[in-house]
Write a structure and sequence with these properties.
The complex is a heterotrimer. By secondary structure, chain B is mostly helical. In chain B, 77% of the residues lie in helices and 1% in strands. Chain C has one domain. Helices cover 75% and strands 3% of the residues of chain C. In chain C, strand 1 and strand 2 form a beta hairpin. Classes of the chains: A alpha/beta, B mainly alpha, C mainly alpha.
Chain lengths: 245, 322, 288
C-alpha cells in the first residue's frame, strides 16, 4: 500500500455567481483512510462532494484521483475511475427491483458485470448491507433506512476505490444509527477509501480517526478528530449548532 | 437470465401467428384494402421505431419526416444505377448518420431544444435537398421506376416490422436498455453509476432514425415521382407522434393500439372532408394531452391494476418492469 | 448596405414576434407552438379591418392587440393552467404544453383554412417607396420597423421601470421565490401569456402591411420565434431583440449573397452554433 494520496484536492473553488460555496480548499486523502468532513449547514460540504464526484465542475483548482486530474471530467467518467457515492436525499431507482438497483452500480463501471454473475454478486451485497433475501421487494415501499442500505449496496457494487457518503447516517433512530456505524466500520477492512460528510458527532468520533472542518466554504481545520473537535475555532463555527445525536 | 422465459415464448408464438396471417393479406385483396394495410404496417414500423427512442427518453421527436425523406431520396437518387437492397442499406446509414448529428447537437440539453430542432429539421433538409438538386441536377424531382408493386412493399414492410420488434426486444434486454431504464428513473444516478447518458441517447436515436430511413426507402417505389415536398412531408412527423402517444409508449407493441384506429380514421376523414385534416390532427393532440396522457395502453394498465387489486388482497412480488 | 437595412426591418418584425413568445415561455413557462397561428390570425384581422372598414393597420393594433390579449388570457386559463397544475416538474410541463399548443396550432390553422381557404392574401398600405441610403424601400416596412421599435421600447420600460413589470420579471427568474414575496404567480403567468399573445398579434398586424400571408404559414414563424427566444436567452427581452436582429440580418445576407432558398439553413446554422457553444443563449443565465 503506497503512501501517495488517493485523492488530492488542490485549491478547489466553486462559485455560483457571487456566492462562493467552496473557497480554495486544499486537502489530501491517503488510500484506505476513513475521514470525516464536517461543518455547519451551508458550509459547502455537499458542494465539495459534488465537485469530487463530478456532479459539478470546479470554477478553478484541481482534483486528482491517484494522480490523474478528474476535475472537469463528466460524472460518468469519474465514476468509471472508481468513485462511488450516496446522496444526501436518498436516490434509489423506483421502477427497478432491489437487486436491479444494486446491479445498476456494477454494470457500467470498471466491474462490467452482467447476467447471472451480476445477480449473484448483487445478492451477496444485499446480504452484506442487511437486506439479504429481499432482492425482489418493491423498492418504493421500503423503509428509509432500507433505502439507504440499498443505495450503499449500489455504490459498493461498483467496487470503488473512493466511496463518498453524503450524510448517510442522517435521519436514523439510535438502534439504526448503531447498525449503520457498524456497517461502515465493517467496510474499512476491504481497503476502500471513504470520505463521509456528517453532522452526527457521535458517528464521526466513533469512525473517523481524522476529520476536516469546513465553514462558509473555507477549510478551517484538518487533523486528528479529538484535537480538531476541541479546537476553539471549530467550536465557534458550530456555536448554537452542535448536533450530538 | 435465460434466452426466453415462458411469457416471452407465449408472446413470440402469438406474434408468429399474427405475422403469418398478415402475410396472407395480399392474396385476399389487391386494391384499396391492400393499400390501407400497407399504410397501417408502414405507420406501425414508424411508430414503433419512434417509440424505441422517445418512449424511454420522453424526448418528442418530430424528425420522422426528415429521416423518411432521406430514405426515399436515397432510393430515388440511386435507383437507376444501384441494386435496391444496397440502396436500402445506404438509406439506413444516411438516416442513422443524420440522427447521430442531430443527437450530438441536441441530446445533451433538455427536451425542449430537441423538439424545436426536430420541428424544423424536415423543412431544413427539404430546403437543402431542393437547393442541391437545382444546383447539381438541374431538376427537382426524381423518377422511380421499379418492378416492385404494392404487394412487395407490404411484405418488405412486414419483414421490417418483425426486425424492429426483435431489435426492440434485444435492446430492452441489453446493457443499453438497462441504461435507458436507469436514465428514465434518475439521470443523476445514471451518471454516477458510469452511464454516458448523452451517448446512450444518441445511439438509441440513431437506431430509431435508421429504421425510419429504411421505411422511407421501401416506400419509394410507391411514389413513381419523388420530389422534396412529398418526400419530406412534415405531416408524417405529426401523425407518428399522435399515433404513438395515442397507443402508449410503455410497451413495444403499444403504438399499434394507436396506429390501427388512427390510420383508418385519418383515411376516412381525408377522403370525405379533405379540408378538415388539420382540425382532426389538432383535436387528436389535445385529446391525448388532456384525456389520454399515457395512451390507450395506460388506460388498459389502469384497468388491469384495479382488477388485480380487487382480486389479490396482498399481491406477491409484482412482475419486474418490461 | 441594402442588406443591413432590409435585414434590420426583417429583424424588427421577428423581434415583436419573439418578444411575445419570450413572455409566454420565459414567464408563463409555456412553449407556445401556436404562436405563429396567433400571428396569422392577426394578419387576417388587420386585412379585414383595412379592406372592410378602412382602418389603418397600425391603429388597428389598438383593436387587435386587446382582442388577442383577451383570447390568450382565455387560452391560458382554460387550456394551459390545468397542465401547470398537473405537472409534477418543469420538464413534464414543457412537454405537455408543447403537445397541447401543438394541438391548438392545428385547430387554429384548420379553422382558418376552412374560413379563409389556402390562398395568399395581401393588401396595399403605404407601399410608396422611400429612399434610404441610395436604395428604395417600401414606406410600410419602415413604418412597421418604427412601430415595432416603439412597442419594444414601451415593453422594456414597462418591464424594467415599473413595479408591475418587475414582478413579471421576478416570476420569470423564479416562480417559487416570487410567490414568497407575495407575487400572485398564477395571475402573473396568465397576464404574461396574454400580453405575449397581444404582442405577437401586434407584430402580425404590422407584418400584414408588407408581407403576403396565407393560413398555413404560421409554423415557419413559430419555429423562427422559438429559435430566436432560445438564442437570446429564455425570458430575456433584450436578448430576444438582439437575436431577432441577428437572425434578420443573417437571413437577408444569405438570401442576397448565397441563395434565397437557403434561409432556413442559415437560421439552423445559427441555432446549432448556439446549442453547441452557449445553450443558455446570449443573455441567459447558466444553470448551475
Amino acid at each position: 500500500m503506497s503512501s501517495a494520496p488517493l485523492l488530492s484536492v488542490e485549491k478547489a473553488r466553486k462559485a455560483f455567481g457571487g456566492l462562493v460555496a467552496v473557497n480554495d480548499v486544499d486537502f489530501t486523502v491517503k488510500q484506505s483512510e476513513l475521514i470525516g468532513l464536517i461543518g455547519p449547514n451551508g458550509s459547502g460540504k455537499t458542494t465539495m462532494m459534488n465537485l469530487i464526484s463530478g456532479a459539478l465542475k470546479p470554477t478553478s483548482g484541481t482534483i486528482r484521483l491517484a494522480g490523474e486530474a478528474i476535475s472537469g471530467m463528466p460524472a460518468h467518467k469519474i465514476s468509471q475511475r472508481g468513485v462511488a457515492r450516496t446522496f444526501q436525499l436518498v436516490r434509489i431507482l423506483p421502477s427497478l427491483s432491489a437487486v436491479e438497483n444494486v446491479i445498476a452500480g456494477a454494470v457500467f463501471g470498471h466491474v462490467r458485470a452482467w447476467g447471472d454473475d451480476a445477480y449473484r454478486e448483487a445478492e451477496v451485497l444485499l446480504e452484506r448491507v442487511g437486506l439479504g433475501g429481499r432482492g425482489n421487494a418493491p423498492t418504493g415501499s421500503m423503509t428509509y433506512i432500507d433505502q439507504k442500505r440499498l443505495e450503499l449496496a449500489r455504490a459498493l457494487a461498483a467496487e470503488p476505490r473512493l466511496l463518498l457518503l453524503d450524510e448517510w447516517l442522517a435521519g436514523l433512530n439510535p438502534t439504526e444509527l448503531a447498525e449503520g456505524i457498524a456497517l461502515i466500520r465493517a467496510l474499512t477492512g476491504s481497503g476502500i477509501t471513504i470520505v463521509m460528510v456528517e453532522h452526527i458527532m457521535e458517528a464521526v468520533r466513533a469512525l473517523c480517526p481524522r476529520v476536516l472542518v469546513m465553514n462558509s466554504g473555507k477549510l478551517i481545520a484538518d487533523g486528528e478528530t479529538g484535537t480538531v473537535l476541541a479546537d476553539p475555532q471549530v467550536i465557534a463555527a458550530y456555536l448554537g449548532e452542535v448536533s450530538d445525536a | 437470465m435465460s434466452l426466453m422465459n415462458e411469457k416471452e415464448q407465449r408472446i413470440a408464438a402469438i406474434a408468429l401467428v399474427l405475422f403469418g396471417a398478415a402475410a396472407m393479406i395480399p392474396f385476399a385483396d389487391d386494391g384499396y384494402y391492400l393499400s390501407l394495410c400497407v399504410n397501417i404496417v408502414m405507420y406501425a414500423v414508424l411508430c414503433t421505431a419512434w417509440t424505441l427512442f422517445s418512449g424511454p427518453t420522453h424526448y418528442i421527436s418530430l424528425a420522422t419526416a426528415a429521416f423518411f425523406g432521406v430514405g426515399t431520396y436515397s432510393v430515388g437518387l440511386g435507383i437507376d444505377t444501384l441494386p435496391f437492397p444496397l440502396l436500402v442499406a445506404i438509406a439506413a446509414v444516411a438516416s442513422g448518420v443524420l440522427a447521430g448529428l442531430v443527437g450530438l447537437a441536441t441530446l445533451r440539453l433538455s427536451g425542449v431544444y430537441f423538439v424545436i430542432f426536430t420541428l424544423g429539421l424536415a423543412e431544413l433538409v427539404r430546403q437543402v435537398v431542393t437547393w442541391l438538386q437545382v444546383k447539381f441536377l438541374g431538376a427537382v424531382g426524381l423518377y422511380v421506376f421499379t418492378d416492385l408493386t404494392e404487394k412487395h412493399i407490404f411484405w418488405m414492410l412486414l419483414a421490417l416490422a418483425a426486425v424492429v420488434y426483435i431489435t426492440g426486444w434485444l435492446v430492452n434486454r441489453s446493457r443499453l436498455g438497462f441504461a435507458m431504464r436507469i436514465i428514465g428513473n434518475d439521470e443523476t444516478v445514471a451518471r454516477h453509476v458510469g452511464i454516458d447518458v448523452a451517448r446512450a441517447k444518441v445511439i438509441l436515436f440513431m437506431i430509431s432514425g435508421a429504421f425510419i430511413g429504411i421505411t422511407g426507402a421501401i416506400l419509394a417505389p410507391r411514389f413513381a415521382y419523388v420530389e422534396p415536398p412529398s418526400a419530406f412531408n412534415p405531416v408524417i412527423s405529426f401523425q407518428v407522434v399522435i399515433m404513438a402517444l395515442l397507443g402508449g409508449t410503455g410497451r413495444l407493441w403499444a403504438p399499434l393500439l394507436g396506429v390501427i384506429p388512427f390510420t383508418i380514421l385519418f383515411d376516412r376523414i381525408s377522403a370525405s372532408f379533405p379540408n378538415h385534416t388539420s382540425l382532426l390532427i389538432g383535436v387528436a393532440f389535445m385529446a391525448i394531452v388532456y384525456f389520454l396522457p399515457r395512451g390507450v395502453m395506460g388506460l388498459i394498465d389502469d384497468f388491469r391494476a384495479r382488477h388485480a387489486k380487487s382480486r389479490h388482497a396482498a399481491a406477491g412480488v409484482p412482475e419486474a418492469a418490461e | 448596405m441594402d442588406i443591413l437595412v432590409t435585414g434590420t426591418v426583417l429583424g424588427g418584425t421577428y423581434a415583436l414576434i419573439a418578444l411575445g413568445l419570450t413572455l409566454q415561455y420565459g414567464v408563463a413557462r409555456i412553449m407556445n407552438l401556436a404562436n405563429g397561428e396567433n400571428l396569422v390570425l392577426a394578419c387576417f384581422c388587420a386585412f379585414w379591418l383595412y379592406t372592410a372598414a378602412s382602418i389603418n393597420p397600425v391603429l388597428g393594433i389598438l383593436i387587435i392587440a386587446p382582442v388577442a390579449f383577451a383570447l390568450n388570457w382565455a387560452i391560458y386559463v382554460f387550456a394551459m393552467k390545468p397542465l401547470v397544475d398537473r405537472a409534477k416538474n418543469r420538464g413534464q410541463l414543457e412537454i405537455d404544453s408543447i403537445l397541447a399548443t401543438f394541438g391548438l396550432m392545428f385547430i387554429m390553422q384548420g379553422v382558418m383554412l376552412l374560413v379563409f381557404g389556402g390562398q395568399y392574401f395581401s393588401y396595399n398600405f403605404l407601399s410608396e417607396p422611400v429612399r434610404i441610403l441610395g436604395e428604395n424601400y417600401g414606406l410600410n416596412r419602415i413604418v412597421s420597423l418604427g412601430a415595432a421599435t416603439l412597442i419594444a421600447v414601451v415593453l422594456y420600460l414597462f418591464l424594467y421601470r415599473t413595479r408591475f413589470g418587475t414582478a413579471v420579471r421576478a416570476v420569470s427568474v423564479s416562480p417559487q421565490s416570487a410567490s414568497l414575496v407575495a407575487i400572485d404567480v398564477p395571475r402573473m403567468s396568465a397576464f404574461a401569456f396574454a400580453l405575449g399573445g397581444g404582442l405577437t398579434a401586434a407584430g402580425g398586424s404590422l407584418l400584414s402591411t408588407y408581407y403576403t400571408f396565407n393560413s398555413s404559414m404560421g409554423v415557419i414563424f413559430t419555429m423562427k420565434a422559438l429559435i430566436i427566444v432560445i438564442m437570446g436567452g429564455v425570458g430575456d427581452v433584450r436578448g430576444a431583440v438582439l437575436a431577432a436582429l441577428l437572425l434578420g440580418l443573417a437571413e437577408t445576407a444569405v438570401a442576397s449573397l448565397i441563395d434565397p432558398g437557403l434561409t432556413l439553413a442559415a437560421t439552423y446554422t445559427l441555432f446549432i452554433l448556439v446549442l453547441l457553444f452557449r445553450p443558455q443563449g446570449i443573455f441567459g443565465r447558466q444553470t448551475a
